[in-house]
Amino acid sequence: MPLNALGWSTEEDEKLAELVQPHSYLYNLQDPSRKNILARESTWQEIAQQLSKPVEECKKRWRGLRDGYMRSKRIGTMHISKVGVFQKLQFLDESSVSNISKFQDNLIKKL
């Protein structure tokens, strides 16, 4: 099982995406539960335990996956090695549209 530069395999990346998906407060800025720091930390501890990785490493890898996915959506290109992982991250599309809409609404109110 080949590892990327951070020491994560494609299978581990996909598993991380699967474990994060049911917990929208980890990625959706509009989720009211997002403010519950204890719930977020507890969830990250569970995810890290299931992956046998440190919590901070899981958080860092998640940010990298999420940001890479959003960047590829914006630019319109995707590296072939990321296709499987990015398919698992499509749940982010709904929350990103929600976050952008909320940002635009707030911006219009300020004008």
Automatic annotation (TrEMBL):
One of the GO biological process terms: regulation of transcription by RNA polymerase II
Domain MADF positions: 15-97
Stretches assigned to the Myb-like domain: 8-66
Superkingdom in the source lineage: Eukaryota
A GO CC term assigned to this protein in UniProt: transcription regulator complex
Name of the protein this chain belongs to: Transcription factor Adf-1
Organism: Manduca sexta
